[in-house]
Amino acid sequence: MSTFYVIGTPIGNLEDITLRALRILKEVDLILCEDTRVTAKLLKHYGVSTPKESYHEHSKSAKIERIIELVREGKNIALVSDAGTPGISDPGSFLVAKIREACKDEVTIVSVPGPSALTAFLSISGAPTNDFTFLGFLPHKKGRETLFKEMDESSRATVFYESPHRILKTLESLVKMVNKKRVVVGRELTKMYEEIVSGTPSDVLQYFKSQKEKVRGEFVVLVFPSS
Ligand code: SAM
To answer: Which of 9, 119, 180, 191 is the most buried (most CB within 10 A)?
Structure first.
């Protein structure tokens, strides 16, 4: 019987990893990494020398077959992404589904919870978060405008991930389509330049436009619900 662990890893601060995650990363036969070079830094920091292989969104079906084979041989395997929780806007869900389908009685699939930019941000956003809508990354074109309309009308908080290349464009869209609501932007959470900026979309856009050096790093955005 094999165990397949889905493990949350830090979103910036290397100390944000559980004792259980570290123990399991040391004990498993293989660690599947979104990018082995990124995970190598974490593993080196904690003296983990377990063999690594890549598994990412472009991995071919032959790779999945090989992983399934290893599971059938009884190997214990861990899956990590570059940062945060696998499967949350990251590779993982498809592989988990395939393993569950192909190896029903031969595997236990176990979560080893850890950080996610989504929950880290929600916990300090100040927004009501008993229920919320998570959109992952917004589409660049098709359906984008409809999503802004929905955010404007929604009685739930809406949260999404954004890249530094698109944050200004997205804030401009929020100014146009959602300007009466309050927004919160989380940048570089858990890292040296962590910050939270909130206000109307115009306030937040102005803040980043006037400090271009802050338009870098990683962003999460929340639009408040209608009151
Ligand atoms: N699976 C990851 C998780 O659970 O957090 C998310 C992966 S997704 C490919 C990467 C996006 O998450 C980034 O573009 C950014 O929007 C957000 N993100 C990741 N780390 C972050 C951080 N430290 N601060 C703010 N946002 C972050």
So the answer is: 9
185 phi-psi bin (left φ>0, alpha ψ -120 to 50, beta other): beta
CA–centroid distance, residue 193 to ligand 1 (Å): 15
C-alpha closest to that of 107 among 81, 56, 68, 79: 68
In sequence order, the β-bridge partners of residue 109 are 4
Would you state the pLDDT for residue 126?
A: 96
What pLDDT is recorded for position 227? Answer: 78
Q: Give the up-direction half-sphere exposure of residue 154: CA atoms within 13 A in the CB hemisphere.
A: 22
Under 8 Å CB-to-CB from 215, ≥6 apart: which residues? 164, 167, 168, 208
- Ligand 1 centre and the CA of 120: distance in Å? 10
Q: The pTM is what?
A: 0.96
Is the CB of residue 39 below 6 angstroms from any atom belonging to ligand 1? no
What residues are paired with 83 via a beta bridge?
Answer: none
CA of 46 to the centre of ligand 1 (A): 22
CA 113 distance to own-chain centroid: 13
CA distance 17 to 30: 18
